[in-house]
């Protein structure tokens, strides 16, 4: 609010300067013709000076408008119980766990998360699409999916962390998406059962199911594990877009949804691809690529700005041991 008043005052001041210059011009036009060359030169410079002032004013207005938009979109309200309500750059409201120093802090400060990837994700979704967000975390991708697919679409968010699942459910409801967006408080893999979810509330994106996920500052809670094919047995059910980030369990999750992928002929899937983590989960990067190739999928690497480039299968399977994001589809991507 203070910055907005300063911007308005600055604009008023510059407008007053312009009016003064125009007055001087009028007065100059009424002066006797016998002015010196230097006086006429000063008068002739007035329009150019006014143009420069106008240009500078436009630059100042754009500068303040950008920063005021950031401030407006990052307005947050602390609700207690380590929970805040903030606003995404899209204008949607979202609940945030204030302990989260990775995703949560970005949402509170900027209203953005993985901006380039989000642009690509939203571009893949068409009105009325069915979208699966596997590893929803705070639900940023689920919110984008709901906005892009609209009320005739269907959004399924999967998040095993009970607190985060509750926040996602609240965010979807407060934005009016509750009628077509559903939160499944489960982990996704290739076998149904019960396990333990280990996580550090400060790093909400690093939850891990099963053995070997603990740490000295981690919390743990019981967790149900499901196969996507068991959850959606109806052969009429199709997925149009899938986003998956499950900390190395991508291969096992794919193995548990082979029937859905097979019958979803136009599905496009964005997924995190981390060979080291995938190997520890029991299904390697090579095995994951082999499954997807057998289903007819092609591969693209996703750059941070959301642009994509074709990815040779061999590079995807045995490339550098880094964490990256890939896109798979049977069709060309516009």
From TrEMBL:
It comes from the Bacteria. This is Methyltransferase FkbM domain-containing protein. Coiled coil: none annotated. InterPro entries: FkbM_mtfrase, SAM-dependent_MTase, SAM-dependent_MTases_sf. Residues 133-299 form the Methyltransferase FkbM domain.
């Amino acid at each position: 609010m203070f910055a907005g008043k300063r911007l308005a005052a600055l604009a008023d001041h510059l407008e007053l300067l312009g009016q003064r210059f125009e007055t001087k011009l009028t007065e100059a036009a009424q002066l006797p013709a016998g002015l010196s060359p230097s006086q006429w030169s000063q008068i002739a410079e007035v329009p150019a000076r006014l143009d420069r002032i106008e240009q500078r004013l436009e630059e100042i207005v754009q500068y303040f408008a950008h920063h005021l938009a950031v401030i407006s979109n990052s307005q947050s309200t602390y609700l207690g119980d380590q929970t805040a309500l903030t606003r995404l750059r899209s204008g949607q409201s979202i609940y945030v766990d204030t302990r989260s120093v990775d995703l949560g802090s970005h949402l509170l400060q900027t209203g953005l998360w993985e901006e380039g990837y989000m642009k690509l994700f939203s571009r893949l979704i068409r009105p009325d699409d069915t979208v699966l967000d596997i590893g929803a975390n705070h639900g940023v991708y689920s919110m984008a999916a709901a906005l892009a697919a609209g009320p005739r679409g269907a959004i399924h968010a999967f998040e095993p962390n009970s607190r985060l699942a509750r926040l996602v459910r609240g965010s979807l409801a407060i934005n009016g998406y509750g009628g077509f967006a559903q939160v499944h408080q489960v982990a996704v893999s290739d076998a149904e059962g019960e396990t333990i979810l280990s996580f550090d509330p400060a790093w909400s994106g690093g939850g891990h199911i099963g053995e070997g996920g603990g740490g000295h500052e981690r919390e743990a809670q019981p967790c149900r594990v499901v196969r996507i094919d068991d959850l959606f047995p109806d052969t009429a059910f199709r997925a149009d877009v899938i986003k998956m980030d499950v900390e190395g369990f991508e291969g096992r999750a794919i193995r548990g949804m082979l029937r859905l992928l097979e019958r979803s002929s136009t599905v496009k899937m964005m997924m995190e691809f981390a060979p080291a983590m995938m190997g520890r989960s029991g299904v390697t990067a090579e095995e994951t690529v082999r499954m997807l190739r057998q289903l007819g999928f092609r591969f693209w690497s996703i750059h941070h700005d959301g642009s994509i480039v074709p990815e040779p299968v061999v590079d995807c399977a045995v490339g550098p041991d880094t964490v990256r994001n890939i896109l798979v589809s049977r069709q060309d991507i516009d």
